[in-house]
Amino acid sequence: MARRRIAITGIGLVTPLGIGTDVTWAKVRAGESGIGPITRFDASEFTTTIAGEVRDFDPTLWIPKRNLRQMDRFIHYAVAAADMAVKHAGLDTDKPDPERWGCYVGAGMGGLGSIESTYRTLVAKGPRHGISPYFTPSVIINLAPGQISIAHDCRGPNMSMVSACSTAAHSIGEAARVIERGDADVMIAGGSESTVTPLGIGGFCSARALSQRNAEPTRACRPFTASRDGFVLSEGAAILILEGFDRAEARGATILAELVGYAANADAHHITSPAPGGTGAARCMTLALRDAGLAPEQIGYINAHATSTDADSSETAAIRSVFGAYAYAGLAVSSTKSMHGHLLGAAGGLEAAICALALRDGVLPPTINLDDPDPDCDLDYIPHEARRASIEYAMSNSFGFGGTNAALVLRKAQ
Question: Which alpha helices (DSSP H) does 256-307 contain, by range?
Fold first, then answer.
């Protein structure tokens, strides 16, 4: 049987680069960084004092003020990004049958900020007065798609993927499967995260995972370089509207790109480190190519997971393994985390969105701060500046703690 095609018809972004898809994409094209000193709390005693914070975000533009306390910040971001995506797709005025659209939106860690603040009030005021009745629904991850479904009357499949840094990519891929098997016509899919908190920063500092280039925040995230010293923790949300291609065409929607391939697998190796030589990542990319029915040479661009850690060289090895000689003869790769940092559970959604926009506009985003390439990272990483290139297919990689992997393949709208 022919598989139902999947169109991407809307994108909503809340990122350290800005509020909205157009401003985020403009800054990515310009090679700008959204990394800066932490302002959310006093980070002076932490080894890392920088992050990719979302700035100038007013949740009341999307959420009634009386409802704000029902939601942690990560849900605020998710609701805002989903509303942007729905409007971008024109679904606010051309609403689907409520039973035929759903929402798969996840997070890696959930309401960490609300957990911290509630514990402080519990200690100060005791259990009778220190815990809000909204505490539980404000922090659990599936209340992100829950709140989105309430706002938009989405009565179809509704749940959260939780797979660390692969969360949003898995959400998008699994949402596509829902449409392919006929359980929905439209899916709101992606991820959200807000863990720039004392516990969030502190936990990764203790694991020695974060960059300590505090004096140069915009230069701290340095994927593929010899001087990389850890990732930069960021926050935000990225939501895509997936729609049956036939439905999108019938209603005259603007199709941004087509999702043609998806794969998920596991390293089964280590809780935080990738399998040696990136073998799990390589298998995932190969499976995604197979799902898309493509040869490796048909991929024009890869948005790498590359986080500015030692694992960058493993991903490079994985790409070499899958793409062979073509990895050096036409394949372009970049890590946009160099600009927006690592959004954890939202990262794969943002990077898939960037792939869709790159295909639409014929612009491949750069890897900034690539001043001293690691000899083990020897591919074409589009250093410093965006590149004009009309390509047909792009891949987005997402790999997470626990050895979880996801790869998405997108096609330029035809």
Answer: 279-292
User: What distance in Å separates the CA atoms of residue 78 and residue 76, rounded to the nearest whole number?
Assistant: 6
Given 88, 170, 305, 340, which residue is catalytic?
305
CA pair distance 286, 292, nearest whole angstrom: 10
Q: State both tokens at 29.
A: 């094209």
DSSP string across 356-391: HHHHHHTEEPPBTT-SSB-TT--S---BSS-EE---
Q: Is 270 a catalytic residue?
A: no
Q: Evaluate whether 354 touches 346 at the Cβ level (below 8 Å).
A: no
**Calpha distance 334→408 (Å, rounded):** 15
pTM assigned to the model: 0.98
Question: In whole angstroms, what is the distance from residue 195 CA to residue 345 CA?
Answer: 10
**Given 103, 221, 342, 377, which residue is catalytic?**
342
pLDDT tens digits, 280-339: 999 999 999 999 999 999 999 999 999 999 999 999 999 999 999 999 999 999 999 999
Structure tokens at 377: 């990272």
d(C-alpha 75, C-alpha 4), whole Å: 31
Mean residue pLDDT of the chain comes to 98
For 293, half-sphere exposure in the C-beta direction (CA atoms, 13 angstrom radius) is: 6
> Could you say which of 165, 205, 221, 355 is catalytic?
165
Query: What whole-number distance in Å separates Cα of residue 79 and Cα of residue 124?
Result: 31
Q: How far apart are CA 11 and CA 24, in angstroms?
A: 11
Active site residue 305: yes
